[in-house]
Amino acid sequence: MISKYLPTFILLSLFSSTVNADFYIGAGLGRTEFEREGETATQTFNYDDNKLSGSLFVGYHNKSYPEWMRFEGGLKYHGSWDVSKHDHNFNDELSSVTLTWVPTFISTSQLNLVGKIGSFWWNSNHSGLTKFSDLQGGSGQKMYAGIALEVIVTKSLGFRIGAEEFDLDYVKMQSVELEVHYTF
Protein backbone atom coordinates (compact mmCIF):
# COMPACT_ATOMS: atom_id res chain seq x y z
CA MET A 1 0.00 0.00 0.00
CA ILE A 2 2.85 2.43 0.81
CA SER A 3 4.38 1.79 -2.61
CA LYS A 4 1.15 3.09 -4.13
CA TYR A 5 1.72 6.52 -2.50
CA LEU A 6 5.53 6.66 -2.66
CA PRO A 7 5.63 8.50 -6.04
CA THR A 8 3.33 11.17 -4.59
CA PHE A 9 5.61 11.69 -1.59
CA ILE A 10 8.66 11.89 -3.87
CA LEU A 11 6.95 14.54 -6.02
CA LEU A 12 5.93 16.50 -2.91
CA SER A 13 9.50 16.35 -1.66
CA LEU A 14 10.87 17.66 -4.97
CA PHE A 15 8.18 20.35 -5.13
CA SER A 16 8.86 21.50 -1.55
CA SER A 17 12.58 21.94 -2.34
CA THR A 18 11.77 24.25 -5.29
CA VAL A 19 9.27 26.50 -3.48
CA ASN A 20 9.44 28.08 -0.08
CA ALA A 21 7.38 25.32 1.58
CA ASP A 22 7.80 22.07 3.46
CA PHE A 23 5.73 18.92 3.24
CA TYR A 24 5.72 16.47 6.11
CA ILE A 25 4.20 13.19 7.21
CA GLY A 26 3.55 12.01 10.72
CA ALA A 27 1.91 9.57 13.09
CA GLY A 28 0.61 9.77 16.63
CA LEU A 29 -0.29 7.41 19.45
CA GLY A 30 -2.17 8.21 22.63
CA ARG A 31 -5.33 7.81 24.69
CA THR A 32 -8.89 9.00 24.23
CA GLU A 33 -11.30 9.53 27.08
CA PHE A 34 -15.00 9.34 26.22
CA GLU A 35 -17.47 11.40 28.22
CA ARG A 36 -21.21 10.90 27.90
CA GLU A 37 -22.85 14.32 27.67
CA GLY A 38 -25.96 15.10 29.68
CA GLU A 39 -25.50 12.08 31.93
CA THR A 40 -27.06 12.32 35.39
CA ALA A 41 -26.38 10.16 38.45
CA THR A 42 -29.40 7.95 37.71
CA GLN A 43 -28.19 7.41 34.14
CA THR A 44 -24.66 6.35 35.07
CA PHE A 45 -23.48 3.39 33.05
CA ASN A 46 -20.39 1.28 33.53
CA TYR A 47 -18.30 1.99 30.49
CA ASP A 48 -14.69 1.48 29.60
CA ASP A 49 -13.83 4.92 28.29
CA ASN A 50 -10.05 5.33 28.27
CA LYS A 51 -8.87 3.76 25.03
CA LEU A 52 -5.85 3.68 22.77
CA SER A 53 -6.02 6.16 19.88
CA GLY A 54 -3.82 6.85 16.88
CA SER A 55 -3.41 9.09 13.87
CA LEU A 56 -1.65 9.40 10.52
CA PHE A 57 -1.29 12.79 8.85
CA VAL A 58 0.34 14.76 6.05
CA GLY A 59 1.10 18.45 6.28
CA TYR A 60 2.01 21.56 4.30
CA HIS A 61 4.03 24.40 5.86
CA ASN A 62 4.64 27.59 3.88
CA LYS A 63 7.91 29.07 5.16
CA SER A 64 7.06 32.56 3.87
CA TYR A 65 4.38 32.79 6.58
CA PRO A 66 5.65 30.25 9.15
CA GLU A 67 3.25 31.17 11.95
CA TRP A 68 0.00 31.02 9.96
CA MET A 69 0.39 28.93 6.80
CA ARG A 70 0.41 25.36 8.07
CA PHE A 71 -2.25 22.79 7.25
CA GLU A 72 -2.70 19.08 7.89
CA GLY A 73 -4.97 16.34 6.67
CA GLY A 74 -5.21 12.99 8.35
CA LEU A 75 -6.89 9.85 9.55
CA LYS A 76 -7.67 9.43 13.23
CA TYR A 77 -8.76 6.37 15.19
CA HIS A 78 -10.41 7.64 18.38
CA GLY A 79 -10.93 4.23 19.92
CA SER A 80 -14.06 2.52 21.16
CA TRP A 81 -16.16 2.67 24.28
CA ASP A 82 -18.10 -0.21 25.75
CA VAL A 83 -21.27 0.20 27.81
CA SER A 84 -22.73 -2.50 30.01
CA LYS A 85 -25.53 -2.10 32.54
CA HIS A 86 -28.59 -4.29 32.85
CA ASP A 87 -30.01 -4.59 29.34
CA HIS A 88 -27.82 -1.82 27.86
CA ASN A 89 -24.83 -3.46 26.19
CA PHE A 90 -23.06 -2.01 23.18
CA ASN A 91 -19.74 -1.01 21.67
CA ASP A 92 -19.19 2.21 19.73
CA GLU A 93 -15.97 2.56 17.72
CA LEU A 94 -15.15 6.01 16.33
CA SER A 95 -12.77 7.11 13.58
CA SER A 96 -12.49 10.26 11.47
CA VAL A 97 -10.83 12.09 8.60
CA THR A 98 -9.46 15.50 9.61
CA LEU A 99 -8.56 18.76 7.88
CA THR A 100 -6.72 21.11 10.22
CA TRP A 101 -5.20 24.59 10.35
CA VAL A 102 -2.14 24.51 12.64
CA PRO A 103 -1.15 28.07 13.65
CA THR A 104 2.01 28.65 15.69
CA PHE A 105 1.43 30.86 18.74
CA ILE A 106 4.90 30.91 20.33
CA SER A 107 8.02 29.90 18.44
CA THR A 108 11.72 29.48 19.17
CA SER A 109 14.33 27.66 17.11
CA GLN A 110 13.49 24.28 18.69
CA LEU A 111 10.20 24.74 20.55
CA ASN A 112 6.75 25.74 19.28
CA LEU A 113 3.34 26.11 20.87
CA VAL A 114 0.82 25.27 18.14
CA GLY A 115 -2.94 25.24 17.94
CA LYS A 116 -5.17 22.89 16.00
CA ILE A 117 -8.44 24.15 14.59
CA GLY A 118 -10.24 22.02 12.08
CA SER A 119 -13.04 19.90 10.83
CA PHE A 120 -13.47 16.18 11.25
CA TRP A 121 -15.70 13.82 9.32
CA TRP A 122 -16.51 11.06 11.79
CA ASN A 123 -17.82 7.54 11.44
CA SER A 124 -19.38 5.43 14.19
CA ASN A 125 -19.18 1.65 13.99
CA HIS A 126 -21.88 0.65 16.48
CA SER A 127 -22.67 -2.87 17.65
CA GLY A 128 -25.26 -3.89 20.20
CA LEU A 129 -28.98 -3.73 20.80
CA THR A 130 -29.33 -0.30 22.40
CA LYS A 131 -28.17 3.23 21.53
CA PHE A 132 -27.79 6.49 23.42
CA SER A 133 -28.44 8.40 20.22
CA ASP A 134 -29.66 7.85 16.69
CA LEU A 135 -26.24 9.14 15.58
CA GLN A 136 -24.56 5.96 16.78
CA GLY A 137 -23.81 3.78 13.80
CA GLY A 138 -23.88 6.86 11.57
CA SER A 139 -21.50 9.54 10.39
CA GLY A 140 -21.26 13.32 10.24
CA GLN A 141 -19.06 16.39 10.29
CA LYS A 142 -18.07 18.62 13.24
CA MET A 143 -15.40 21.12 14.22
CA TYR A 144 -12.63 20.38 16.72
CA ALA A 145 -9.77 22.17 18.48
CA GLY A 146 -6.53 21.33 20.22
CA ILE A 147 -3.17 22.58 21.39
CA ALA A 148 0.30 21.00 21.28
CA LEU A 149 3.87 21.58 22.33
CA GLU A 150 6.24 20.81 19.46
CA VAL A 151 9.95 20.02 19.80
CA ILE A 152 12.10 20.31 16.68
CA VAL A 153 14.95 17.77 16.99
CA THR A 154 16.54 18.22 13.56
CA LYS A 155 15.55 20.04 10.38
CA SER A 156 13.60 16.94 9.33
CA LEU A 157 12.42 15.42 12.64
CA GLY A 158 10.00 16.79 15.21
CA PHE A 159 7.78 15.60 18.06
CA ARG A 160 4.53 16.98 19.47
CA ILE A 161 2.59 16.24 22.61
CA GLY A 162 -0.90 17.59 22.39
CA ALA A 163 -4.50 17.48 23.50
CA GLU A 164 -7.58 17.68 21.27
CA GLU A 165 -11.32 17.78 21.96
CA PHE A 166 -13.91 16.33 19.60
CA ASP A 167 -17.54 16.98 20.50
CA LEU A 168 -20.31 14.89 18.97
CA ASP A 169 -23.94 15.35 19.93
CA TYR A 170 -23.94 12.25 22.12
CA VAL A 171 -20.34 11.91 23.34
CA LYS A 172 -17.31 14.13 23.92
CA MET A 173 -13.85 12.73 23.13
CA GLN A 174 -10.69 14.17 24.69
CA SER A 175 -7.45 12.83 23.22
CA VAL A 176 -3.84 13.17 24.32
CA GLU A 177 -1.26 12.02 21.77
CA LEU A 178 2.47 11.94 21.21
CA GLU A 179 3.14 12.60 17.53
CA VAL A 180 6.27 12.33 15.43
CA HIS A 181 6.65 14.03 12.04
CA TYR A 182 9.23 13.93 9.27
CA THR A 183 9.74 16.96 6.99
CA PHE A 184 10.89 16.46 3.40
UniProtKB/TrEMBL annotation:
InterPro entries listed in its UniProt record: OMP/PagP_B-barrel, OmpA-like_TM_dom
Sequence ranges assigned to domain Outer membrane protein OmpA-like transmembrane in this UniProt record: 20-131
Keyword check for DNA-binding: no
Extent of the signal sequence: 1-21
Positions of transmembrane segments: none
Keywords, comma-separated and alphabetical: Ion transport, Porin, Signal, Transmembrane, Transport
Keyword field contains S-adenosyl-L-methionine: no
A Pfam family annotated for this UniProt entry: OmpA_membrane
Similarity remark: Belongs to the outer membrane OOP (TC 1.B.6) superfamily. OmpA family.
UniProt protein name: Outer membrane protein OmpA-like transmembrane domain-containing protein
Biological source species: Thalassotalea nanhaiensis
